[in-house]
Amino acid sequence: MRTTTPRSFARAARTGLCAAALALLGACGNRNEYHPPPPPPVTVSKPLRGPVTEYLLATGSVAAAQTVDLVARVEGYLRSVNFTDGTLVKAGQLLFVIEPEPYQAKLASYQAQLENAQSEYDRQLRMIKDNATSQANVEKWQSQRDQAAAAVTLAKINLAYTHIVAPFDGRIGRHLVDPGNLVGAMGSTTKLATIEQVNPVYIYFSVNERDVQHIRASALKRGVNITGAAPKVPVYVGLQTEPGYPHEGTLDFASTGLDTGSGTLQARAVFPNPERILLPGMFARLRVPTADPKEELMVPDRVVASDQAGSYVLIVGPDHKVRQQRVEIGTVQDGMRVIRSGLDGATDVVIDGLQNAVPGNLVTPTTQTLTAAASARP
Prior knowledge:
Blueprint: H1 6-31, E1 41-45, E2 48-52, E3 55-72, E4 76-81, E5 88-89, E6 94-98, H2 101-129, H3 135-161, E7 163-165, E8 170-172, E9 182-183, E10 190-208, H4 209-221, E11 234-239, E12 247-254, E13 264-271, E14 283-289, E15 294-300, E16 305-307, E17 310-316, E18 322-333, E19 336-341, E20 349-352, E21 364-367
Parallel strand pairs: 1-21
Antiparallel strand pairs: 1-20, 2-15, 3-10, 3-14, 4-6, 4-9, 5-8, 6-7, 8-10, 10-13, 11-12, 11-14, 12-13, 15-19, 16-17, 17-18, 18-19
């Protein structure tokens, strides 16, 4: 019978441990084998081609189309205020009444004088046919008749001034004089209130000399007469709290020349304002088309970067390498930046994953069809 000694047992254990260690070392060698990571992903797209309209951007202020100070044109005590401060009023609506009785009495007196003078003049005409009066008397009563008629006309005008009505549809401010006060004393005019026409409204803005020359050149190229009245071109406006330019109006006036102090030309546009959204004094942003639409290449404005050398975009070539491409840029339309030069319609422009696009490095591009809506993404 074979027996196992302690020494032989130890040798067997050492042999097993060595075999296990070799197996572990082999396994560790397989896990440490290096595999380079794939190039980072980016999204690329061809530039979008579409119609682009050149716009002049300006700022302006809203003004009432008409503003009238209502004043007392005759002397008297203010009888009544017939409106609520700050409300809309209609043309012809009664606003103020100045005591009319003194002017009614004057009118009645002058009418009586006119009737008397007319009667005497008629009598003188009958008498001169019979040589019972002189031509001088006829002419005297004719003059008195005419003077009385003029006095009646003036009395009617003054009586009409005692009732002050709205000259047009508009919004009236607060009344400045309370009933019971004497107005129009000593032939002076007393301001009673101010009324403004707010539908439509005007927006005044200024155009610098360079833009004026550009607009004139564009108009001449399109055959627009620039020597007559301001052309009826559309003007789009947005307020500070409004996105875009939701209000549309029409250019209706341009100054005859530039202001020598500021070097700008004043222009005006008229806007319908039925909801009274545009109020006099408001600040407004304006966009005015200066040329007919034409086809241009565009990329999202957010992918255009710039440095001291100018503007550029990142592109991906056929070798999947990122390159920096210098471009000449134009205007922005609906979030899309016009590219004047530097790109063609077949260039792959990086539109997403810009943080992964390092010039000279490889990337994994995914192609996407560019649309104007995609440009709005942050």
